[in-house]
Design goal:
With about 375 residues, this protein is an alpha+beta fold. About 40% of the residues lie in helices and about 30% in strands. The protein has helices at about 80-155, 160-230; strands at about 5-10, 20-25, 25-40, 45-50, 55-60, 65, 70-75, 235, 240-245, 265, 270-275, 280-285, 300, 305-315, 330-335, 350-365. Strands 3-12-15-14-13-16 form a 6-stranded antiparallel β-barrel. The chain has a 4-stranded antiparallel sheet with strand order 8-7-5-10, with no helix packed on it. A hairpin with an 8-residue loop joins strand 1 (about 5-10) and strand 2. Helix 1 (about 80-155) runs antiparallel to helix 2 (about 160-230). It is rod-shaped and about 175 Å long.
Length: about 375
Amino acid sequence: VVVGVAVTALLPSTPDGPQLTYRIVLGDLDVTVSEPGTLESSENTEIRCKVRGQNTITSVVESGSIVKEGEELLRLDTLLIEEQIDERTKYAHWCKAGEVQLKAHMNRSKLAVKAYMEGEFVERLTELEKLMAIAKSSVLTARNMLDHDRMMAERGYVSSLKVEQREFWLSQAKMNLVIQETNIDVLKRFTKAERMERLQGELKSATAEYKAAAERTFADEHRRDTAIEEFKYCVVNAPRGGMVIHPKAARWKNAPEVQEGATVYKNQVLLLMPSLDKMQITIGIHESILKRITPGLEAKVSLPDRTLQGEVISVAKVARPAGWWSGNVVKYDAVIQLPKSRNLKPGMSAEVEITIASRKNVLTVPVAAI
């Protein structure tokens, strides 16, 4: 480059008209990328729908309104949820009544087991042991009388027939003692086990039925309580003071608009309360120059009433969805942070010019001349 030498570049023109010229001189050159964008807040308080299923909006505050804390912002139709509360309350009462009855039945079964073990079984065992004691006493008495009659028979005072009768009575007493011992053994080993198995089976059945009824009651009461809790969320109030805006759904997200009569779903963002002190702009960067856009680059943001100096703070690693609405052009989101300034509002249009390179004291020619 020779300083002081002027060069003339020819620009395309009509054959019959004058030739367009441009005087090439040394100067400074900034390489920039310009993209349109819209202001948004980097910190938004999201107000989401907390009611399950499909819900219809009956009233909603106008987008851009300035509200106070606690002021009503949005109201959902409550007819369906009121019907659910009434229906679930009815079922909860029915289940509670069945639960109380089955609990009483379970308690009776528990008492039946205890009554048998500590009452009926003990009473029957005591009765059999009493009969066995009598049988033992009868055996002892019959043996003593037999011994006495045998002694008297040896002396000739008692006949042999009397002795045989005493022997028969002794054998009867012994058989009665064996019967009583057998009755006690059967009571302890079999009758008690059979009765306990039946009573414990009834107790287990009653307990299972009670637990099932308690689960049904809990489920219906939980559904009722959930419906009552969601009923409170049908009216949305402002969590703080500030501006309220409607979220604008991207065309590829298929989210319904927030307006009167619209249907919304649980966890859908209903309203946004942006922080006006922290504003930013998201623009699309063409894939051909993506590598040249890095965080830290300066950006000039031209608004309708002023110009601000911003900074690139992030560049997306994944491209935004491309489709007919974007001419199938692949672009990546770049976020430009703006300095704090008064009267900045979400939705304001802006033109962003990012400086990706700067050359000092170079020759420049119009692109049309190349």
